[in-house]
C-alpha cells in the first residue's frame, strides 16, 4: 500500500527533501533541505508538508494529529539522535522552534513559537547544563509569552488593547524600578513566569500545558490556524497568493543566541536589498533571540565594518563612538563573521540570487537558520538582475524573468523636487528603509489611514514600530515612519516589498498614541499635520515638499532593451495629449493604441463649443458648433501625430454619452445659458432630456456617430486634414488608424465606415493629396466578439476594449463594482478585481475566440488591446498567448508591459 509522506527530515548535511520541493515543503522547508545538502550548518529538524495544511482544513485537528503522529515521533527521534539530547527529558531537554513556511514568503504574517519543550523541570535542566540560570529563565518566560499569545489565544484581538504579558512585564519593571528587559534579574524572570501562568489560568481557565508533546501539537496546529488569520488572508490578497497553497510547518532544534556575550543572532543579505549594490550587509544583536532583531525592540548593529561606518556617518557619529557603542559583528566576533561571510557568498552563487538569511551564533558557533531569495526594491531588482547577468551567473532570459514587472513602477515614481528639498526643514533622521519620496498628513493608526485614504487624503503612517496588523494602513499610506526598528524590522521589510517609501528607527520621535501627537525635539506635531519622508536618505522633513520625476538608471535602460529584444508584442500607449505621448515615448511606447478624442473636448474653451453642439436643436445647429471644433481638433491631432512620428496612432471617434459633457448643477447651467445666449430653462430641459437610465448601454459609441453623422464627419476630417497638413510641411508624422467604438453589429460599422470614407475622399480631393489610413473597430460588446468573423470583413483592425467588454460580459457596472467587490474578494467569489486583472476564463475566451474568428475572414487582421488590462502583467501574458499584435496602456505602465511581454515570449519559448 502506498503511503502519503507527510514529514520530511533534514540535518547533519542530509535531507529527505530538496530545494526544488517548494510546493510541498514551502520555501523555508525546501531551502532548509537544500542548505543541508550543500553542507551548511543548519540545526536539524523536519518539515510537515503544505498538503497537511489542506488536510487540516478538510479533516480537522484531531484526525490530522492522529495521521501525523507516527511520522512526527520518528522525526523527533531523528533530531534527538543528531543533537544528542531528548525531547521531554528534564535533565537535558531538546527544545524546538516551530515556524510556518508557505510557497511564497509571507514575512511575519503567520505564527512562530520558540523554546518549545520548556516547563518547570526542564528549565532547571537547561540552567544546569548551560551554567546560565538567567538564560534558562529568559527562554522560559519568552516561551510562555509566545505560546500564550499564539497558541492559547491570549493576544488581544484589537490593537488598542495591550498584550497581557507586556502589561505584566511593565508592572514588574515599575515595581522594580528598572527600564530595560536586560536589567531584570533571574528572580524577576522567575516571578514573570509565575505571573504569566496565573494570567493564562485566569483568561483560559486552564493551566499552562507542561507536557512537551501537548505543547508541540498545540504549536503545529496553531501554525496551520494562522494560515487563515486576517493578516495572512490580506497579505495573500495583496500579493495574489492562492489560499489552496497552504503552509508547511518547520520544526527545528533550538539554537540560542541569548546564551550570553558570546552568542548573537541576526539577519543578513548577500546584496543590498535597497539599492542592489553587491555588498554583504545585515544586522545583529548580541545576547538575543531572532525575534528581537525583527521586532525592532532593541536597535540592532551592522554586521560589516563598512555598513557600520556608513550607518555612523548618517547618524553623525564619530568612529571612536561607533566602535565603542555600535561595533560591527566583523569586529566583535571575527571568526564567526568570517564563516558567515563565506557562507553568504556561497549561497548567493549557489542559488544565483540575492539571499536573505537568518543566523544564530551560540557560544561562538555559527548556525544558519534559514535562507530565501530576499525581498528587494524595484531598483535593486533591476540592478541585481543586470549584475548577475554581467557576472555570468544568469542568462539574458533569466535576467528578464528576475524582474517583477509591477516593481518597475517604483523606479518611475517621483523623487523630491531638487529646488524644494533645498529649503525643506529636516526635523528627524532615521534609516533609509525603503527608497522614494512621500508627503502626507500624519496618521497614527492603520484604520485611520484607511479611512482617510477613502476620503482622498494622503497620509504618512507614523508608528513606534509596525506589526502585521498595520498592513492595511501601510498599504494605503504614502509613506511609513517608525521610531524604532532597523533595516530588517517589520516596517522596513514590508515597505520594501510594497515599494513604499519608509524611514525606520528615527529615534528622536516621541509618539503619544493617546494624545495623537508626535513630538520631535520639543516641537509637537498633531495628527493631520503634513510631513515628508525621504526613504533614500532617511530624512524626515516638516510640511509638504514638492516631488519630481525620477532619473532612470543605466540598468533600467539595459533591461528594457533586453525586454524589447525578446518581446513579440509591441507596446503602445493610451494617450490623448502630445505631453502624455512624449512621456510614453520616453518610456518606450511604440505607438498610440487609444486616443480618446473626448478627452480633448474638455481642454480650455473647447467644452463651450461641445456644449453648443449638444444643445443644438437640429443638424444645422450642430454643424455650426462642429465647425468651431474642427480647427481645434485638427490642431490637437497635428501635435499628437508629430510626437508619434513614424509610429501608429489609433484615434477613436467620440464615445461617451453626451450628458457627460453638460453641467448638472443649476449654477453652472445658468452660466452655460448666459454663454450660449439661451434661457436657463432651455438648458435645464436639454440636460434633462439627455439623462438615461443606463447611460453606459445608451446613446454612446458608434450610436452617436450613426445618429449624428456630422460628428463623425468632423472628426474624420480633422484627423485626415492634420495628417495632410503635416505631410505638406514635410513633417514625419504618425500612421493614422481611425477606430469606431462600441460596435456590436457589423452594420453599425459599415455605416460609420461609409461616412468616414466619403468624408476622407472629399478631403483628399480638396487637398489634391492623399495619406494612408486604416479603419478598424473596438471589440468591447460581447456580440462583436461573437460575430468577429463578420466584423473583420469590414474592420481592418481590432482593438479589444476590455473595460467595456468586462462590464458587459460580467454584467458588472465598471463604476459601481466598489459596492460589492470587497465582499466578493473576502468571500472568494472573485479572486481579483476583473477590471484590473483580465478575467481569462470569461472575457479572455471572448478575446481568443474573436481573434480566431476575425483572422478566419481577414488573415492579417491586426489585433490589440486598449483596456486597462493592457498594462497589467498577467493580462499582458494572456494577450501574448492569445496572439495579439500589441497591448496599449497608460504611459507609466509602458515599461511594465514591455517587460511582461518579453517574459511571456520567453515562457512560450521555454514551453517548446
Ligand atoms: C474599453 O472599454 O476598454 C476602452 C478602452 O474604452 P473606454 O475605457 O474609454 O470605454
Ligand atoms: Mg470602452
From TrEMBL:
UniProt keyword Glycosyltransferase, yes or no: no
Primary enzyme class: transferase
EC number, as in UniProt: 2.7.9.1
Keyword check for ATP-binding: yes
Binding-site list for substrate: 596, 652, 780, 801-804
Coiled-coil segments: none
Domain of life: Bacteria
Transmembrane parts of this sequence: none
An annotated Gene Ontology molecular function: ATP binding
Catalytic-site annotation from UniProt: 490 (tele-phosphohistidine intermediate), 866 (proton donor)
Binding site for Mg(2+): 780, 804
Sorted UniProt keywords: ATP-binding, Kinase, Magnesium, Metal-binding, Nucleotide-binding, Pyruvate, Transferase
Pyruvate phosphate dikinase AMP/ATP-binding domain boundaries: 23-391
InterPro entries: ATP_grasp_subdomain_1, PEP-util_enz_mobile_dom, PEP_util_AS, PEP_util_C, PEP_util_CS, Phosphohistidine_dom_sf, PPDK_AMP/ATP-bd, Pyruvate_phosphate_dikinase
Cofactor: Mg(2+)
PROSITE patterns assigned to the protein according to its UniProt record, in alphabetical order: PEP_ENZYMES_2, PEP_ENZYMES_PHOS_SITE
Catalytic activity reported: pyruvate + phosphate + ATP = phosphoenolpyruvate + AMP + diphosphate + H(+)
Pfam families per UniProt: PEP-utilizers (PF00391), PEP-utilizers_C (PF02896), PPDK_N (PF01326)
Function recorded in the entry: Catalyzes the reversible phosphorylation of pyruvate and phosphate.
Listed NCBIfam families: pyru_phos_dikin (TIGR01828)
Identification of the protein by name: Pyruvate, phosphate dikinase
Organism of this sequence: Acetobacteroides hydrogenigenes
Amino acid at each position: 500500500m502506498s503511503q502519503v509522506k507527510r514529514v520530511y527530515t533534514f540535518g547533519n548535511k542530509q535531507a529527505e527533501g530538496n530545494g526544488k520541493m517548494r510546493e510541498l515543503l514551502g520555501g523555508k522547508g525546501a531551502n532548509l533541505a537544500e542548505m543541508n545538502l550543500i553542507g551548511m550548518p543548519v540545526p536539524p529538524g523536519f518539515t510537515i508538508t503544505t498538503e497537511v495544511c489542506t488536510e487540516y482544513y478538510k479533516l480537522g485537528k484531531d484526525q490530522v494529529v492522529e495521521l501525523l503522529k507516527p511520522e512526527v515521533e520518528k522525526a523527533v527521534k531523528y533530531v534527538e539522535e543528531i543533537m544528542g539530547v531528548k525531547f521531554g527529558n528534564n535533565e537535558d531537554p531538546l527544545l524546538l522552534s516551530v515556524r510556518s513556511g508557505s510557497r511564497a514568503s509571507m514575512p511575519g504574517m503567520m505564527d512562530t513559537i520558540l523554546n518549545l519543550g520548556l516547563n518547570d523541570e526542564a528549565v532547571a535542566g537547561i540552567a544546569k547544563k548551560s551554567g546560565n540560570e538567567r538564560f534558562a529563565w529568559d527562554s522560559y518566560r519568552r516561551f510562555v509569552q509566545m505560546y500564550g499569545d499564539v497558541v492559547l489565544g491570549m493576544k488581544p484581538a484589537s490593537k488598542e488593547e495591550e498584550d497581557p504579558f507586556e502589561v505584566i512585564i511593565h508592572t514588574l519593571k515599575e515595581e522594580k524600578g528598572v527600564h530595560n528587559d536586560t536589567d531584570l534579574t533571574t528572580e524577576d524572570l522567575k516571578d514573570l513566569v509565575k505571573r504569566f501562568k496565573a494570567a493564562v489560568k485566569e483568561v483560559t481557565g486552564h493551566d499552562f500545558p507542561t507536557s512537551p508533546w501537548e505543547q508541540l501539537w498545540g504549536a503545529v496546529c496553531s501554525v496551520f490556524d494562522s494560515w487563515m488569520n486576517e493578516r495572512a488572508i490580506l497579505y495573500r490578497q495583496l500579493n495574489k497568493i492562492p489560499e489552496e497553497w497552504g503552509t508547511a510547518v518547520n520544526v527545528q532544534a533550538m539554537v540560542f543566541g541569548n546564551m550570553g556575550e558570546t552568542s548573537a543572532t541576526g539577519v543578513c543579505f548577500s546584496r543590498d536589498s535597497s539599492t542592489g549594490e553587491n555588498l554583504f550587509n545585515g544586522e545583529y544583536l548580541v545576547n538575543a533571540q531572532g525575534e528581537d532583531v525583527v521586532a525592532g525592540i532593541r536597535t540592532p548593529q551592522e554586521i560589516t565594518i563598512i555598513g557600520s561606518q556608513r550607518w555612523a556617518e548618517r547618524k553623525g557619529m564619530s568612529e571612536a563612538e561607533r566602535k565603542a557603542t555600535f561595533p560591527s559583528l566583523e569586529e566583535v566576533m571575527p571568526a564567526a563573521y568570517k564563516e558567515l561571510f563565506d557562507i553568504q557568498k556561497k549561497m548567493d552563487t549557489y542559488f544565483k540570487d540575492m539571499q536573505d538569511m537568518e543566523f544564530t551564533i551560540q557560544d561562538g558557533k555559527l548556525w544558519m537558520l534559514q535562507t530565501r531569495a530576499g525581498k528587494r526594491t524595484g531598483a535593486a531588482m533591476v540592478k541585481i538582475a543586470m549584475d548577475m547577468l554581467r557576472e555570468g551567473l544568469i542568462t539574458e532570459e533569466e535576467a528578464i524573468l528576475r524582474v517583477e514587472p509591477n516593481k518597475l513602477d517604483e523606479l518611475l515614481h517621483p523623487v523630491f523636487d531638487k529646488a524644494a528639498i533645498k529649503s525643506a526643514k529636516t526635523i528627524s533622521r532615521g534609516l533609509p528603509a525603503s527608497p522614494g519620496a512621500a508627503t502626507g498628513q500624519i496618521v497614527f493608526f492603520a484604520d485611520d489611514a484607511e479611512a482617510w485614504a477613502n476620503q482622498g487624503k494622503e497620509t504618512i503612517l507614523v508608528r513606534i514600530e509596525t506589526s502585521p496588523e498595520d498592513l492595511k494602513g501601510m498599504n494605503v499610506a504614502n509613506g511609513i515612519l517608525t521610531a524604532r526598528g532597523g533595516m530588517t524590522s517589520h516596517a522596513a521589510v514590508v515597505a520594501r516589498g510594497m515599494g513604499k517609501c519608509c524611514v525606520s528607527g528615527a529615534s528622536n520621535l516621541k509618539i503619544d498614541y493617546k494624545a495623537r501627537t508626535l513630538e520631535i525635539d520639543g516641537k509637537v506635531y498633531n495628527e493631520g499635520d503634513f510631513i515628508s519622508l525621504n526613504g533614500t536618505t532617511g530624512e524626515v522633513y516638516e510640511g509638504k515638499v514638492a516631488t519630481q520625476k525620477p532619473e532612470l538608471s543605466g540598468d533600467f535602460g539595459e533591461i528594457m532593451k533586453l525586454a524589447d529584444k525578446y518581446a513579440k508584442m509591441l507596446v503602445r500607449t493610451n494617450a490623448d495629449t502630445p505631453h502624455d505621448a512624449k512621456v510614453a515615448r520616453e518610456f518606450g511606447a511604440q505607438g498610440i493604441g487609444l486616443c480618446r478624442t473626448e478627452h480633448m473636448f474638455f481642454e480650455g474653451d473647447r467644452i463651450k463649443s461641445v456644449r453648443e453642439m449638444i444643445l443644438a436643436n437640429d443638424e444645422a445647429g450642430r454643424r455650426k458648433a462642429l465647425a468651431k471644433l474642427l480647427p481645434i481638433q485638427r490642431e490637437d491631432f497635428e501635435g499628437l501625430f508629430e510626437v508619434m512620428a513614424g509610429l501608429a496612432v489609433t484615434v477613436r471617434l467620440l464615445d461617451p454619452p453626451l450628458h457627460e459633457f453638460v453641467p448638472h448643477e443649476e449654477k453652472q447651467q445658468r452660466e452655460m445659458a448666459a454663454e450660449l445666449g439661451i434661457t436657463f430653462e432651455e438648458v435645464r430641459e436639454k440636460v434633462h432630456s439627455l439623462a438615461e437610465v443606463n447611460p453606459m448601454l445608451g446613446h454612446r459609441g458608434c450610436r452617436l456617430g450613426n445618429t449624428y453623422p456630422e460628428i463623425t464627419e468632423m472628426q474624420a476630417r480633422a484627423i485626415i486634414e492634420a495628417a495632410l497638413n503635416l505631410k505638406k510641411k514635410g513633417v514625419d508624422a504618425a500612421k493614422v488608424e481611425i477606430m469606431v467604438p462600441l460596435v456590436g453589429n457589423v452594420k453599425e460599422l459599415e455605416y460609420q465606415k461609409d461616412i468616414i470614407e466619403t468624408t476622407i475622399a472629399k478631403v483628399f480631393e480638396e487637398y489634391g493629396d492623399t495619406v494612408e489610413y486604416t479603419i478598424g473597430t473596438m471589440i468591447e460588446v460581447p456580440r462583436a466578439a461573437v460575430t468577429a468573423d463578420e466584423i473583420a470583413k469590414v474592420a481592418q483592425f481590432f482593438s479589444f476594449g476590455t473595460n467595456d467588454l468586462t462590464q458587459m460580459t460580467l454584467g458588472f457596472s465598471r463604476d459601481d463594482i466598489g459596492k460589492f467587490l470587497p465582499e466578493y474578494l473576502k468571500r472568494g467569489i472573485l479572486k481579483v478585481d476583473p477590471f484590473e486583472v483580465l478575467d481569462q476564463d470569461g472575457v479572455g475566451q471572448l478575446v481568443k475566440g474573436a481573434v480566431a474568428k476575425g483572422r478566419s475572414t481577414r488573415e492579417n487582421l491586426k489585433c490589440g488591446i486598449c483596456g486597462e488590462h493592457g498594462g497589467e502583467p498577467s493580462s499582458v501574458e494572456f494577450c501574448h498567448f492569445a496572439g495579439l499584435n500589441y497591448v496599449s496602456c497608460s504611459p507609466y505602465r509602458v515599461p511594465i508591459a514591455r517587460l511582461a511581454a518579453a517574459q511571456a515570449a520567453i515562457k512560450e519559448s521555454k514551453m517548446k
